[in-house]
Amino acid sequence: MTRSAARLVTTLPFTPVITRPLPGTVTPFPNETVDSYISRLASANRTTPHILRTPSHWLRCPLNDLELLELLSGQPRTSLVWALPELRCYEPGIALPPRTPDVITRFACRRCVWQAGGTGTVHVHAPTHYDLVCLRHGIWHSEGVKAIGQQIDLAPVPEVIRAQMLINRLERRHGQRFIAECYRVCERHWAELDRRGLVRNGAVALLKRLPLTDINDLRPLGPHHRFRRVTRFPQLARFTALVASLALRHAANTLGEKAGPTILAEFERTFQLDYRPRSITRPWMETALIHVVVTMADVVRMLRLSETDTSTPSRSI
Ligand SMILES: [Zn+2]
Questions:
Q1: Which of 44, 178, 216, 228 has a 20 to 30 Å separation from 291 between CA atoms?
Q2: Residue 97 C-alpha to ligand 1 middle, in angstroms?
Q3: What SS3 class is residue 280?
Q4: Alpha-carbon distance 216 to 214, whole Å?
Q5: Which of 129, 165, 172 has its CA nearest to residue 309?
Q6: Three-class SS of residue 262?
Q7: For residue 221, what are the contacts with CB-CB under 8 A and spacing of at least 6?
Q8: What residues does the ion ligand 1 have nearby, CB within 5 Å?
Q9: What residue ranges of the chain have pLDDT lower than 50?
């Protein structure tokens, strides 16, 4: 080959193109991640996600994710763009990309997947870290769940479903940014109260109602075990509601001159501790609780929220 011919070969435009869809297809699930969809598509065709993403070992695929999936799955472009938010950047004319990309992913509720005619494990984008319960089916779908079969039917503990409804109401009332931060701060504080054994009785009562089907040993469940997370959630939701209310009142200067005693009194009125703390536990508890409310009051001021609701959360959850 002459030098000029070799130069011609290296500059020839050559792009590999996949021209046929796979024999098997799957319907995309609403809000599904691209990884999850490719994984299900590969499974339906008895191959691996890596092979679908890289059809050739020696040529880079020139297609973007949307073009590739449209070709491989045979699904309409519109369905893919609507269902898989990550693909919207390629076709904003069909559906606008999310304003803030949802970085949190979780398992989809297994009953929602079955109802949509899907199979296998589906991962979806979640707008928040406190989206934990499918309200349609009463299923604890993600936190602490490591496999789809570990999702928990909440029929024996309706308090957990009501807790998710309470959190959703708070979000509608005060906005996602405030409640997301409030929940995060409260979760951390509640975990510490739990670690010190101050607030476990309520959760233990719920635990007795849950069929602990796949627990094979009799050791106490760790604090991050999904059953512990489920049974802690109603108290945590009520605590979040209480702190949100107190923070809004504190920011609006309506807690009175001595905010500290009011905060402690409201907490003790809402929650019954498992034992009366003494020595260093009580001062710690009081200081930490006031700190949580003051921290959230600063967030209220930063977000310029108004005191739209100051009611104390119901004890009925
Ligand atoms: Zn569901």
A1: 228
A2: 24
A3: coil
A4: 6
A5: 172
A6: helix
A7: 207, 215, 227, 228
A8: 109, 111-112, 134, 136-137
A9: 1-2, 5-6, 8-9, 309-312, 314-316
Predicted pLDDT at 31: 94
Q: Which of 121, 142, 140 is nearest to 39 (CA)?
A: 121
- Name the one residue in this structure whose structure tokens are 């065709």: 45
Q: How far apart are CA 194 and CA 21, in angstroms?
A: 53
**In terms of DSSP bridges, do strands 123-126 and 133-134 run parallel, antiparallel, or are they unpaired?**
unpaired
**Cα 114 to middle of ligand 1, angstroms:** 9
What's the pLDDT score for residue 312?
47
- The rounded Å distance from CA 141 to ligand 1 centre is 8
* Per-residue pLDDT, 109: 96
Q: How far is CA 6 from CA 1, 2, 11, 13, 78, in A?
A: 6, 6, 9, 14, 43
139-151 pLDDT, tens per residue? 999 899 999 989 9
With contact defined as beta carbons under 8 Å apart, do 125 and 31 qualify?
Answer: yes
Task: Tell me the backbone φ, ψ of residue 192, rounded to 5 degrees.
Answer: -70, -40
Rounded distance from Cα 117 to ligand 1 centre (Å): 13
Find the angle CA(230)-CA(175)-CA(172) to the nearest 5 degrees: 70
**Using N-to-C axis directions, what is the helix angle for 226-251 and 176-195, rounded to 10°?**
120
In whole angstroms, give the CA distance from residue 84 to residue 66: 9
